[in-house]
Amino acid sequence: MNPQRSGVALSFLVAVTLCLTGCACGETTTAPGSENGNGDSNGGNGDSNGANGGLNGNGNGQDPVDACAPLGDECTTAEECCSGICVPAPGGTITVCASAGDFCVGEGGACEFSIDCCEGACVTSGENAICSAAASCLYVDQACDFNGECCSGRCEGGHCAHGGGGCRQSGEVCDADYNCCSETCSDGLCVGDGAPCATAGEPCDADDLCCSNTCGADGHCIALDFCRPAGEPCSSGNQCCGLQCLDSFCATLRYCRPSFEPCQTHRDCCSFRCEEGEHGTKRCAPIGGCRTSGAIETPEGELNEFGEICATNADCCSGICALDPEGIRRCKKAGDPRCGEPEAVCLPPGEVCETDCECCSNECRQLREDDDAGPFPKRCPGSGSSSNGDECVPDGGVCVDPAECCSNLCLLHEGEGYRCGLPPPDENDPPPNGSPGDGDCVQFGGQCTTQTDCCDGLYCLPDGSGGYLCSMIG
After folding, report:
1. What total number of domains does the chain contain?
2. Residue 381 falls inside a structural domain
C-alpha cells in the first residue's frame, strides 16, 4: 500500500532527473556545487575536472549552451525546466517550472519507485514501469520482480528486502544517536547494527519505525510532502530533504538535521526549531532570515561545524556555504565560538546561540515570542534589532531575522545581503499571472526564508537545489 499524498501530479520521466544530476541510480548524488566548495549560483569555480559547477553552471564559470529554465519561470514543456517539472500557476493562466523536491506521478506516468506515485504503486506495463492507482506496493518478504513494486524500493532474490537508508550501521561516522540504526553513537562512531527505518507504504505500529516518523491511522508509514526524508527511495539528490541520494536511498546527514527532515527535539535541527505539522509529524522548520550553521555543539558534545543546506555564501549568516565532509553544501561556522576557547571565533548576527559571550555583539536573545509550535531559538541579533522590541527596521534596512523588520519580511536581496521587505521588482521578470495575495508577501515562484513570507495559499518549499521558494502543494 502506498498512502495517497498531496503533491504535483504529472507524468515525470525519471530519465530527466538523472540527466539533471549527471548520475545513474546507485551513485551518490548531491546538490550541485564544486568539490572544493567555491562554486556559486551562476556557475562559480568548478572542480579540477570541470564537473558539478554552480547551480546553473557547467563547471567552468560559464552558462551552459542550452540553459534550462529556473524555478518560477514560464514554461510549456517539462523538458524546458531545470527541475523537469512544468505545472499550472495559481489561477491556471500560465504554466511555470516547479520544484523537483515535491512531485508525484499520476496514473499511467513513468516511475522508478512506488513512492514516486501520487497513489497506488509502480507496476510493470510491457517494458515500462508506470504508476497504477489500483495497485499496492509490496511489503518486505513478499515476492517481487523489480525494485519499484516494493514499498522499500529494493527487490533481492525475488523478494522485497528492507530499505537501505535513513541510518548508519556499526563503525560508520556519526554525530548523534539518530544517525545510527542502533540508536547508539559513541566517540563519533555508530555502535552496533540495527534495522533501517520502514519506508512509505510499509506496515507499522509505531511512529518511530517509519522514515517519515509517522505511522498513519491505517497502520502504514505515510509519505511526506515537500521532500523525501532520510531512508526513502530516491533517483536523485534533489528529491531528498538532505539533497543526498546514496545507493538509491535518501541519506542521513551529519551534524544536525536540515529543514524539512523529521525530528524529535529542537536540538535535532540545524534551525533549532522542530515543529509539529500535518498528521502530527514533527519536522525541522526554517526560522527565517539568514540560514544558520546549527547549534554550537552536536548531541555528542563536539563542535557542530555545519548547519542548514545552502546554495551560495549569501544564504548563510556566517557568509560561508561550503561542502561538508560528505559533499553537501551547507552553512559553516567560521570557527569554534565556544566561550573560553583559546582561539574562539565569535558568531555573527543571525546565528543560533546559547549565551552572550558566543556572539560578536556580546548579546544572545530570543528575537520572537513563542508560538503554538513552541519557542523560537535564541540568535545573535543584528545591528538594527531593538533590545526591547519597540522599534523595527524599515524596508531596505539590514536584517537577520523577520522579527527585526516592520514588514516581518527578511529576505535575500541580490547583491545586498538580507534586507527587510520584498526585493526590488525586476522590470524584465514580472511575477507570474494569478499569484495570490498582494502587499508584503512573497508571491508564487519567489524566494522565501520561512512559511510566513509567502502569500495566502502558498508554502515555503525546498526547491531541490539548496533554496526555498513559495509554491503550491496538492
Report:
1. 1
2. yes
